Amino acid sequence: MGLVMPNPGTIFWMLIIFGIVLFVLRKFAWKPILNALSEREESIATALNSAEAARKEVEGLKADNEKVIAEARREKDIILKEAREIKDKIVAEAKDKANLEGQKSIEQARQQIQAEKTAAISEIKKQVAELSVLIAEKVIKKELSNLGEQEKMVNGLIDDIKLN
């Protein structure tokens, strides 16, 4: 039965050795272990606080980033709208200018045609007058070749002048 029941002397020495070990551990080991544990706890708490602050900052930056993106999109839309308006304005101005230039060209062509028409008519009149004078000259030469016909013609012209 000696194995199941401990000897009182052994219990006494076990208690003394346990007390000494407890005293030595308390004096030399507990303080550094507890300090290390408290430092570890503080560093974990600091890391958690830093992580929470970083998460909040990231959320704030995300919101700011979304605002900046939305503002950039609005500015892009405004710039595109202005560009379309400018393009439409330039196209309209070009069309107006082309129409005006076309009208000017048409008017110049009409004036040139009219001037050429007037010159051609004037030239035809001049040629007709020259031909008429030439024909009249030949006719008069032929008719005035004899003296009797000349007197008859002069008398006819004088009668015509008196009637007018």
Give the arrangement of secondary structure elements.
Elements (H helix, E strand, L loop, with lengths): L7 H136 L3 H17 L1
Describe it.
The protein is mostly helical and 164 residues long. The protein has one domain. Helix content is 93%, strand content 0%. It has two helices and no strands. The longest helix is centred in the middle third of the chain and has 136 residues, at 8-143. The radius of gyration is 65 Å and the shape is rod-shaped. The termini are far apart. The model has no long low-confidence stretch (mean pLDDT 87).
Question: Between the first and last Cα atoms, what is the distance in angstroms?
Answer: 185 Å
By secondary-structure content and strand pairing, the structural class works out as mainly alpha
Helicity range: over 70%
Number of helices: 2
Report the count of strand segments: 0
What's the helix-strand series? HH
Mean pLDDT: 87
Tally of separate domains: 1
- Given the C-alpha coordinates, what overall shape results? rod-shaped
What are the low-pLDDT stretches, counting only 5+ consecutive residues below 50? none
Binned strand content: under 5%
**Largest pleated sheet:** none
Gyration radius, in Å: 65 Å
